[in-house]
Specification:
The complex is a heterodimer. Chain A is mostly beta strands. Helix content of chain A is 9%, strand content 35%. In chain A, strands 1, 2, 3, 4, 5, 6, 7, 8, 9, 18 and 19 form an 11-stranded mixed sheet that branches. In chain A, strands 12, 13, 14, 15, 17 and 20 form a 6-stranded antiparallel sheet that branches. Chain A starts with a helix and ends in an 18-residue tail after the last helix. The termini of chain B are far apart. Classes of the chains: A mainly beta, B mainly beta. Chain A: This is DUF4249 domain-containing protein.
Chain lengths: 364, 490
């Protein structure tokens, strides 16, 4: 009896076939990342190529630039713009006259130094409906801090959505300028001062400088006209959080008002969803967002990023504190000469902030 | 016992029968998904194998053909695969401007499976332009166009040129054949049997230099001098000799005798003066002796073709400044002492000087400058050609001098001669290049390089009967040579 059981067991072991279950391992290391955002505004446009670094608990790698690539942008008529590698490695620049044209579709065509070739799917440039005007107002939203609401400025764009076409909008905030107000009369000597630590030492100058700022939060603001096709729109196109410094006087916000393709809109929307994950059970599952660039040599390889070709209208709005219904109180006090703000904030020798307005400043 | 053996045997057979499951091959769908990119002779197409599991296929790829029946297809085979998903194929060698059909295929278990058919039209070629518009025989030009095939051939007139490279279908590097009987040739481009003619005729870089006098100006090597032209009369003088000998004379070229002869004008040794090249000159420094102090000079003259007339003293000391004449009024500007952008104007009608708006940047006589259509033009040391309206004080950069400037070697000196709508510019210090600038389209055309000793500096420049004449002084083997340049000869 025992022998027969052993025989059966041995038979099962030797006879049964096992198909190995192949688990394709994800290899994020070395994926090519493409940052290409071409617009209809003629200027030197750039495309950046890099290899994605390792990101995880143990390691946060750096995205290594991809050098020595041949980068071409082709339109559907056969016109070709060659992007030449700049001194900033991994950054490729067009001529200063280059711009996308409405109605044309564009392909990105890259040949890497190892001979691999990548092409993008065609991106059609649709005309962006012109923005009539831009207004703004202060908004208060609940925050994670139950004692303090978040306060910011919401920018509204007013435009007519055309009824005869499907439109996909994307608004992007650019680096902007604002008037930095400080309180040099409240300056005190440093605590390490040999004779009089923290003694008041008011400075005569200067309380008003001009500073550059990357508007925050950097949300991805995109929408399609499915729900408002053909209707006049007054829509929130940007939001800048009040951090106590930005709106002490005037904030000049620059915004790109763009039309993007349906595929680009989908990519942006999915990216926005992923960026808004908070870890709650109601979050959408983490997703692997596919771009529109294909490696011809290895089509199965994922290429990160997206090749955008857009029509654009530049918007500029001067947000003045006096026009806001409310703003963050108390505002941030900077007890120093405003020209020294960068140095004080970083603790390292930094350039002085200018007290003269930028040449194209048209504010107050 | 027998029954137990039977049970074991039965179980064994059962295991043999069922333990190795024969893999059942699933179904797949095949899609010709998208035309990614089309150019003149190339196309990139996207296909997709849709399946829920890995399915081995012996081959996959695309069929391309001009007829939808695919009787004579171009087959792009991508080989065996088992992974579902998208695949990409690129075909080259297509005919320009033709309609094509494409469909994806897989070969599975010996059976050919085709997907849906898409169509596309290859693009037609066109020429957008070429540069430079003027080049030497043996030099290189780059023709820019769209959808140019790898078999592109280029002809200058009837002569075929060597195509060095066809760059991604939009640029063709071509070696210019040697000049034959004409300085201008029509360029034709033939690509995939389609002939295209370039609109702008090509021009050869030509010009011939002729040394008229190897020892002009009595053997002196003058520098910091002035020169001007009155009608067809050429003048040069003042300044100093490179050996610091005084050159307080003005010479005139005598065409009949073929030599430079002194005029009756005698000035103090005055150098670094401003001159309009039209007969107005003065300022700079004078020295009572070669080792004497340098004293700013406010002496100005005008030669009207008959006599040297002294002008009232200028209200400003200017040395190495611009001099130019616009609408009969003489301007002096900039210089190397004081404010380098100040401008004063002498009006012959009132016989007086008046201050004018400053120039937008500092200028000095080392910068080539000229007057065209009542505007002042100069080339700054960043190669920018700046246009300045003296009446509205508006200025703009309109072009760039094409040759590189090297500080202290080629960024000073030179000449500019206006001949109709053309301006001849070049021969900077120690440089050989001469360019012809078309002021109507601001296009720069190369001329034949200077064939004499390059290590000299221009000390006089004139034009007569379509020919250019210039004086060039040398510090090594000190001398001043007088040259003639025919810009159209070859």
């Amino acid at each position: 009896m025992k022998a027969s059981k052993t025989a059966i067991a041995l038979l099962i072991v030797f006879i049964s076939c096992i198909d190995p279950f192949g688990v394709p391992s994800l290899e994020p290391e070395g994926l090519l990342n493409i940052e290409a955002f071409l617009t209809s505004e003629p200027h030197v446009q750039q495309i950046r190529l890099s290899r994605a670094g390792i990101y995880g608990l143990d390691n946060v790698g750096r995205n290594l630039p991809v050098r020595g690539a041949l980068v071409l942008v082709k339109d559907d008529l056969g016109n070709i713009e060659r992007f030449l590698e700049s001194e900033m490695s991994g950054t490729y620049l067009s001529s200063s006259e280059f711009s996308t044209k409405v109605g044309r579709s564009y392909n990105l065509d890259i040949e890497l130094s190892n001979g691999e070739r990548l092409v993008s799917l065609p991106e059609l440039v649709n005309p962006v409906p012109k923005m009539d005007s831009v207004t703004y107002n202060a908004v208060r939203t609940a925050s994670t801090d139950p004692m303090n609401d978040e306060i910011g400025v919401q920018v509204l764009g007013h435009f007519q959505d055309p009824a005869d076409q499907q439109n996909f909008y994307y608004w992007r905030m650019l680096e902007s300028d604002f008037v930095l107000i400080t309180e040099p009369e409240l300056y005190t000597l440093p605590p390490t001062h040999p004779t009089c630590p923290r003694c008041p030492a008011p400075k005569d100058c200067c309380s008003r400088c001009f500073h550059k700022d990357t508007p925050r939060p950097a949300n991805i603001n995109t929408i399609d006209d499915l729900e408002f096709n053909g209707n006049y729109q007054s829509r929130a196109i940007a939001y800048v959080r009040d951090n106590g410094l930005r709106f002490k006087e005037t904030y000049r916000l620059d915004i790109q008002h763009m039309s993007v393709s349906a595929e680009a809109h989908r990519f942006l929307k999915l990216s926005d969803q992923q960026l808004r994950l908070t870890g709650s059970v109601f979050d959408p599952p983490p997703a692997n967002i596919r771009g529109n660039v294909i490696n011809l040599n290895r089509p199965e390889e994922q290429v990160l990023g997206y090749f955008f070709a857009t029509d654009i209208q530049l918007l500029r709005v001067y947000i003045r504190r006096d026009n806001l219904e409310f703003y963050l109180r108390p505002q941030t006090t900077v007890p120093n000469d405003c020209r020294d703000y960068l140095q004080q904030a970083s603790g390292f020798p930094m350039p002085f902030l200018p007290t003269e307005a930028p040449e194209d400043w048209d504010g107050f | 016992m027998k029954g137990r053996f039977t049970q074991i045997l039965f179980l064994t057979l059962l295991l043999f029968t069922f333990s190795c499951e024969i893999e059942e091959v699933g179904t797949l769908n095949l899609l010709t998904e998208e035309i990614v990119n089309v150019s003149g002779e190339r196309a990139v197409v996207l296909g997709r194998i849709i399946a829920f599991e890995n399915i081995p296929v012996e081959d996959h790829g695309f069929y391309f053909a001009e007829e939808e029946s695919f009787l004579d297809p171009i087959i792009i085979s991508l080989g065996a695969t088992e992974r579902p998903g998208r695949f990409v194929g690129e075909v080259s060698g297509l005919q320009l401007g033709r309609n094509y059909f494409v469909k994806a295929f897989v070969v599975r278990a010996g059976e050919m499976i085709f997907a849906n058919t898409l169509s596309f039209e290859t693009l037609n070629p066109a020429i957008l332009g070429y540069e430079p518009l003027v080049q030497f025989g043996g030099g290189e030009i780059v023709i820019t166009g769209i959808n140019l095939a790898d078999d592109t051939r280029v002809f200058f007139g009837d002569r075929e040129a060597e195509v060095r490279e066809v760059i991604f279908g939009f640029q063709v590097r071509v070696t210019v054949p040697p000049i034959a009987s004409s300085i201008s040739e029509q360029i034709r481009v033939v690509t995939r049997g389609i002939e295209l003619e370039v609109e702008t005729p090509f021009r050869y870089a030509v010009g011939r230099f002729n040394l008229l006098d190897a020892n002009a100006l009595e053997g002196l090597s003058i520098v910091e001098n002035i020169y001007f032209q009155q009608g067809e009369r050429f003048f040069a003088g003042m300044g100093r000799d490179s050996g610091n000998q005084s050159t307080d004379f003005i010479w005139e070229y005598n065409f009949a005798q073929g030599e430079w002869v002194k005029t009756g004008f005698e000035a103090r040794m005055q150098r670094a003066a401003s001159d309009s090249h039209t007969g107005y000159f003065g300022g700079g420094f004078f020295q009572t002796s070669i080792f004497g102090p340098q004293i700013p000079s406010d002496n100005y003259w005008h030669f009207d073709g008959l006599e040297y007339k002294e002008l009232p003293p200028a209200p400003i000391n200017i040395s190495d400044g611009f001099g130019y004449e616009i609408q009969g009024q003489f301007y002096i500007a900039g210089g190397t002492i004081g404010v380098g952008s100040q401008v004063y104007r002498y009006d012959p009608a009132s016989n007086a000087w008046e201050i004018r708006p400053n120039l937008p940047s500092n200028v000095d006589k080392g910068m080539v400058h000229f007057v065209y259509n009542d505007h002042l033009y100069w080339i700054d040391r960043d190669n920018n050609l700046i246009q300045y309206n003296p009446f509205t004080a508006q200025s703009q950069t309109v072009s760039r001098y094409p040759s590189p400037m090297i500080e202290n070697t080629t960024d000073s000196g030179g000449f500019a001669l206006v001949m109709g709508d053309k301006v001849f510019i070049g021969l900077y210090n120690n440089a050989r290049e001469i360019w012809e600038l078309d002021m109507e389209i601001l296009d720069w055309g190369r001329k034949q390089n200077f064939t004499g000793d390059a290590r000299g500096r221009i000390t006089g420049a004139y034009s007569k009967d379509g020919l250019l004449y210039f004086l060039r002084s040398y510090l090594i083997n000190p001398r001043t040579e007088f040259w003639e340049f025919d810009p159209e000869a070859f």
